[in-house]
Amino acid sequence: MSKRKGSFFEVKRIPVHTVPILGFTGALGSGCSFFAKTVAAKRDYLRVSLSDVLHEKLRSEGKPETFANLQDLGNCLRKERGHSYLAFEAFKRADSGWTRDHKGVVMDGFRHPAEILLMARVPNLYVFSIQATEDLRKKRLLESGRCAEADFDRTAKRDSDEDDVNGQHVSRCNELADIVVQNNIEQARNAKKKLDEYFHDKIDRYLAHIDSQVAQEPNYDSKPNLDEAMMAAAYAVSKRSQCLKRNVGAVICDAYGDIVASGFNTVPEGLESCVARPGDSWCYRDACLNETGRAILFCPKCGEGIQALNQCRNCGATVKGFSRFCPE
Asked: Is the pLDDT of residue 312 over 50?
């Protein structure tokens, strides 16, 4: 990214490492945009949304700004101009709109991993994943009138993980997040009070840590609570896993934080670990799925072959049958 004169990297002659950029991702109805707007207002940050380009284009064409139209247009632009196009456009708007009145940037609405990976090149990006139960997300969208009940399942599925390399993959964005926030607060009479308390107890603490890291200064005011300490222990245990795709760790502790047991994911007993096998693409789970996939390519009643075509998420090639591996 170029550090042009007048960009937010150079305002007030602040070095690059002192500028915080907060990214937000989350499924529809999770409250991702609500949190992004609230954090931007509380912290005097400039907020830009990756979907602004989509809304403006639909309005200019006189088309309704429905979830389906936004999703279709986003897929089209990612296919034509690259998977990180929306993030790049939002970043340019943040750069040109930066003023002395803002202390940082909030980028709202990451829906494809490539968007986060593009912004990861910029120093001090911290991604928040806002999550909520499916029932609560559905309830919020229906009560707000933004989605009909008959459309929720289809719209939510597209949003989470489309069968299209150019589509939306929020579930994969969640895996790239630095901070996960559970937003399961009901919209009740005391919801605002609960949210204020939550921001004070959780979000503000995270932001205080981010400020200290960006400024490269120690922060002695906030210690990790028991849950955070145990999550750090689980993360350390996960590094013992020899899985090539995902490392998972878990700890069981008592009320005082004493660890009773710990564990991590691995292949079934008696088998070689993934890293011990030749090549770097062997996975026990994928091997089982491939074996199952070959078995279900034939009708169990008549034995006739089933013609199934699937599109590879990585290279876009059409694969005949079932495969967990990229044909390229």
From this structure: yes
What are the two backbone dihedrals, phi and then psi, of residue 93, each rounded to the nearest 5 degrees? -65, -40
Cα distance between residue 48 and residue 169, in whole Å: 20
Burial of 10 (0-12, 13-18, 19+ CB in 10 A): middle
d(CA 140, CA 145): 9
Residue 91, in any domain of the structure: yes
Q: What's the CA gap between 103 and 8, in Å, rounded? A: 9
Count of beta carbons in the 10 Å neighbourhood of residue 319: 15
Average pLDDT of the residues in 278-303? 70
Average pLDDT taken over every residue of the chain: 80
Tens-digit pLDDT profile for residues 64-118: 888 888 999 999 999 999 999 999 999 888 877 666 667 888 999 999 999 999 8
- Here the tokens at position 8 are 């937010």
Total domains, the chain = 1
CATH code of the domain containing 36: 3.40.50.300
Say if 202 falls within a structural domain.
Answer: yes
Other CB atoms within 10 A of residue 63 CB: 13
SS3 259: strand
Q: Give the angle subtended at the CA of 182 by the CAs of 231 and 243, to the nearest 5°.
A: 45
Q: Cα(107)–Cα(84) distance, rounded to whole angstroms? A: 13
Residue 8: is its pLDDT beyond 70? no
Alpha helices in the chain (DSSP H): 32-43, 52-60, 67-81, 85-97, 113-119, 134-144, 149-160, 170-175, 191-198, 204-214, 226-238, 284-295
Work out the burial of residue 26: count CB atoms within 10 Å of its CB; fewer than 13 is exposed, 13-18 middle, 19 or more buried.
buried
